[in-house]
Design a protein that fits this description.
The chain has about 250 residues and is α/β, with parallel strands linked by helices. The protein is built from six helices and ten strands. The chain has helices spanning about 5-40, 65-80, 115-120, 180-205, 215-220, 230-235; strands at about 50-55, 85-90, 100-105, 125-130, 140-145, 145-150, 155-165, 175-180, 210-215, 225-230. It has a seven-stranded mixed beta sheet, sandwiched between helices. Strands 4-5-6 form a three-stranded antiparallel beta sheet. Helix 2 (about 65-80) packs parallel to helix 4 (about 180-205). It is elongated, with a radius of gyration of 24 Å. The N and C termini lie far apart (about 120 Å). Keywords: Membrane, Transmembrane, Transmembrane helix. This is Secreted protein.
């Protein structure tokens, strides 16, 4: 073997080794990224999850709003990416606790009894005005001492939460998407899909509750969602007691 052939062979071997090392490095990084994603969502390979869908509050039938359907499709894509499986059930068919399977619960408490139960049990500092009568406070959020009113189509709010049961052996989280309108539910699922890596870095696998504002949905749909505040502490604390009425007395 002369020097030219030897150099060619050595070059081919070096290129093969470099390609193999590059492939191994990319595979390692991809798997590490996938494991972090699976840990954040509580979705290891071949695990089962639950998609709890609400009903369309504006429909007399047991229908699902099209924006809630879009939200479920985005969540289904996340679940598939993690190598997990999903079962879709309606809010009135959910008859189980939480923590054994990852749960994604979509819709406000007025259209989703499962959401109402979660808010009552785990987020006592949150109240949603579900009174069907029109008025400035209809569908308004109260979180702690703050109130957030809706301007339909212009300024609408949604809670995005990752909650854990805090019980030994029950490590699967519950994700809540509780919006003032159906389009805000989809905005919250899209926000989670786009920002889950940043949220995982910031919160790890811990509980968080975020308040998002969907801006000008009549023009931009669910695409423009702004983070208003991290309301985890206020949402988990009991609501402040209303001030006692003041009695006036006149001297006789």
């Amino acid at each position: 073997m002369n020097d030219d052939v030897r150099n060619i062979v050595l070059g081919v071997v070096a290129a093969g080794i470099s390609a193999a090392l590059g492939w191994l490095a990319r595979t390692y990084l991809w798997k590490r990224k996938l494991r972090r994603k699976q840990a954040f969502f509580g979705l290891p390979d071949h695990s089962e999850s639950l998609l709890v869908v609400n009903r369309d509050a504006g429909s007399p039938d047991l229908a699902v709003h099209r924006y809630d359907v879009f939200a479920l499709l985005e969540l289904a894509a996340l679940i598939k990416d993690c190598g997990a499986h999903a079962e879709v059930i309606t809010q009135d068919a959910a008859r189980q606790g939480f923590g054994e399977r990852t749960e994604f619960c979509v819709g406000g408490p007025g259209s989703n009894r499962r959401m109402a139960a979660h808010l009552h049990a785990m987020l006592p500092g949150v109240r949603v005005n579900t009174d069907p009568e029109p008025g400035p406070d209809r569908l308004a959020f109260q979180i702690g001492s703050e109130r957030y009113r809706m301007e339909k189509g212009l300024s609408e709010y949604v809670l995005l939460a990752r909650l854990t049961a805090g019980q030994p052996g029950l490590t699967r989280p519950v994700f809540l998407f509780s919006g003032q309108t159906a389009i805000t539910n989809q905005a919250a699922t899209r926000y989670l899909a786009r920002n889950h890596e940043r949220l995982a870095r910031k919160y790890g696998n811990n509980t968080f509750v975020l308040l998002l504002k969907v801006v000008n949905s009549q023009a931009y749909g669910p695409d423009v969602a702004e983070l208003v505040a991290d309301v985890t502490r206020a949402a988990q604390a009991p609501l402040p007691a209303p001030p006692a009425p003041r009695n006036s007395h006149r001297a006789s």
